[in-house]
Amino acid sequence: MMKKLLKGFAAPMALLALPATAYAQAAPAPAAAATKDADPAIWVVKDADTTIYLFGTVHVLKPGLSWFDEAVKTAFDKSDTVVLEMLEPDAATMQGLIMKTALAPATDPALTAKLPEASRAPYAAALADLGMPAAALDRFEPWFAAMTLSIAPLQKLGYDPQSGAERTITDAAKAGNKEMVGLETAEQQLGYFDTMPADLQVKYLVSTVNEYKNVGPLLDKMVAKWSAGDPDGLGATMNEEMRKTPEIGKLLLTERNIRWADWISARMAKPGTVFVAVGAGHLAGPDSVQAYLAKHNLKAERIQY
Predict the structure, then answer these.
(1) Where does the chain cross the membrane (predicted)?
(2) Number of structural domains, the chain?
(3) H-run or E-run covering 249
(4) Domain containing 166: what range?
(5) b/e 105-114 (16+ beta carbons within 10 angstroms → b)
(6) pLDDT in tens, 224-233
(7) Which residues 6+ apart lie within 8 Å of 193 measured at CB?
(8) pTM of the model as a whole
(9) With 0-12 CB in 10 A as exposed, 13-18 as middle and 19+ as buried, what is 149?
(10) CB atoms < 10 A from the CB of 180, how many?
(11) Which contiguous run of DSSP H or E holds residue 232?
């Protein structure tokens, strides 16, 4: 389940700034890293007067990775409009949205009591590893606890939310006075999790607890495949767990990819050049955005470096 969060949602990354994670141990200042070249995959869909680039992002990266150059930067510079999964609200608004959706009803039992007995000690151990009391998240929904356990360790592992692809693209778009469009809102992205049935939320949290110690190696593997421009390998890594839970895969992957392909198809009717950047897992595998574009008779061609 952790793979879902690391791959596909911009909104939950705001958890890094939330009061609920204030207990987390401060990350050491990262040492200056030598710049390493990366060539992530990028595609193009075009007709006589419209060009749409498709770029898969990773929401959080380690400093020192050079990817916003060559084919990616060329496509970005040619584009008049930049499209992201969502346009992130200011920090105060985002925190308010998350707290509004993340708090459990006052009548609910404590979160720990919702967990299976066998998961309670590992859950407490994961919180302790983050410097958080065992009851720190007891008044929150299980999906929020799962997100916290997925994201809070990242800074300690050397990942910098300021180095994420969306942040770089957003800053460049603003500097270039490009039009910016969000495919979804922050409310929508949080709503995908908040509206999950209670039992599915608990299943999500239990899976995240079980994978907690693997978050570093998992993200390292995903970033390596992304950097190497290996969408098939990246998709297999990112979407494997989602395929095991079809009800979540349908909600978080398939249905969103269908909607985004519909949006791109409709946008092809308007002249111009557009740079679309979404989580890299959405551009890989049999349920990819490109696969659904094909149903609109649109072919996404890989751009070679």
Answers:
(1) none
(2) 1
(3) helix 246-249
(4) 2-12+39-101+140-302
(5) eeeeeebbeb
(6) 999 999 998 8
(7) 12, 101, 143, 144, 147, 201, 204
(8) 0.88
(9) buried
(10) 14
(11) helix 231-244
